Amino acid sequence: VSYNAAISACEKGAQWQRALALFFHDMPAAQVAPNIISCNAAMSACEKGDQWQLALALFGSMPRWSFMPDTTSCNTAISACGRGGQWQRALALFGFMPQLRAPPDEISYYCALDALFDRPAGQAVFLQAFERGAFPELFANSWGRNLFLLDLHSLSAGAAVMVASWWLLRVSEVYAASPAYFWGRRRLRIITGQGLSWRDHRASVVEAAIRDLLDATGTHWRTCRENPGSLLVSLSGLSGIGRRPKK
Predict the structure, then answer these.
(1) What digits encode the pLDDT tens for the residues 98-114?
(2) What CATH number should be reported for the domain holding residue 38?
(3) Do the domain assignments include residue 167?
(4) For 241, which DSSP code?
(5) CA 64 to CA 19: how far, in whole Å?
């Protein structure tokens, strides 16, 4: 347990070299066998240190120690590939999860969408997440109860972009078909927060991603003066939604 805790501490500090030293040197020297917890923690330290090759090496070596990757292992490997710009590998790992008997969870979709949000394959992953009921509270709030508000503050940047694209397209379709429904309303509100809810803790990462999306589609927006963690989007400028260029 003490080695697991020590490697986890290295993970939180992104000290990947120390995490690997504990895993490959200190544990064998003490005749302590690695387990899924210590391996996942070492992988996560490599991910946070932007060492995607090392994270994948650990992922692939798990059967050598007589255990198989679990959902957390897959999520970490997908995230490491995404951070390293290896979107094809991230997509392949995501697709391989059922064969590993590691069912995708909500974090799996976050990690995959972070790697794929600006790729055509990201749309398929997002639709799969939607069909399987991921983010249920988000869609209930932004579509069922309040069409004019979208709260993204708990999402990763990639998931936020995909959700916002979907939501804005739906709103633009309703606006074109039934403008009277929007009588007296000129703007939509998107809550991005300060970027602290997602595990990277990079300030304003979600807001920056949504700004890029709105700028790419020519959609007019401004920061809410009363709440800097919100963006106000002009209803009259939604015509560009759905024409975002694909890489």
Answers:
(1) 999 999 998 999 999 99
(2) 1.25.40.10
(3) yes
(4) T
(5) 19
How many Cβ atoms are within 10 Å of 68's Cβ, its own excluded?
12
- Tokens 């803790």 appear where? 201
DSSP secondary structure letter of residue 26: I
Range of the domain at 85: 3-132
The order of strands in the sheet holding 149-151 is: 149-151, 187-191, 230-234, 221-223
Amino acid at 76: T
Residues 104, 194, single domain; the answer is: no
What is the torsion angle, in degrees rounded to the nearest 10, for the CA atoms of residue 115, residue 119, residue 122 and residue 123?
160
Q: Distance between CA atoms of 164 and 149, rounded to whole angstroms? A: 11
Residue that is written with structure tokens 């390293």 in the block: 84
Looking at the DSSP bridge assignments, the partners of residue 187 are: 234
Structural domain contains residue 209: yes
Angle at 15 between CA 10 and CA 16, to 5 degrees: 100
Total domains, the chain: 2
101, 49: one domain: yes
Burial of 193 (0-12, 13-18, 19+ CB in 10 A): buried
239 located within any domain: no
Q: Which residues pair with residue 38 across a beta bridge?
A: none
Rounded CA-CA distance 74/102 in Å is 8
pTM: 0.83
- 14-45, pLDDT tens digit by residue? 789 999 999 999 999 999 999 999 999 999 99
